[in-house]
Amino acid sequence: QVQLIESGGGLVQAGGSLRLSCAASGRTESMYIMGWFRQAPRKEREFVAAITWRSAIQYADSVKGRFAISRDNAKSAVYLQMNSLKPEDTAVYYCAADSSRRISITDKDYDFWGQGTQVTVSS
User: Fold this and answer.
1) For residues 38 and 120, is the Cβ–Cβ distance under 8 A?
2) For residue 27, is pLDDT > 90?
3) Measuring CA to CA, which of 20, 47, 77, 79 is 20 to 30 A from 85?
4) Contact indicator for 118, 92 with CB cutoff of 8 Å
5) Are strands 117-122 and 10-13 parallel, antiparallel or unpaired?
6) How far is 23 from 106, CA to CA, in rounded Å?
7) Please, what is the end-to-end C-alpha distance for the chain in angstroms?
8) Greater confidence, 116 or 30?
9) Measuring CA to CA, how many Å separate 22 from each of 90, 106, 110?
10) Distance CA 39, CA 103 (A)
């Protein structure tokens, strides 16, 4: 199995930046795809960004140009640099991983999940 632990969430003013980290342990060879999802209050969980082992990347339209995903395969870690944050980015952010070879924006396609980290952007 794979265990994912997120860190780096917090409270920031609109226009500010945060960097989320996700550290993985266990059978990390299963983590060909690593990604981030988020869930705001009273909303469904939504795709944010994902990256493959070979660094192919996909972003949600709502974060393009503001967020950047990266990974360090040697450390079994994935990161999400979030810039120009907006109040609508407020959510619990989840790290996810899967062994499939193609990025999916559907949360049901990911087998492994972290516990989530809260990001709050004040206006």
Assistant:
1) no
2) no
3) 77
4) yes
5) parallel
6) 22
7) 40
8) 116
9) 18, 19, 15
10) 19
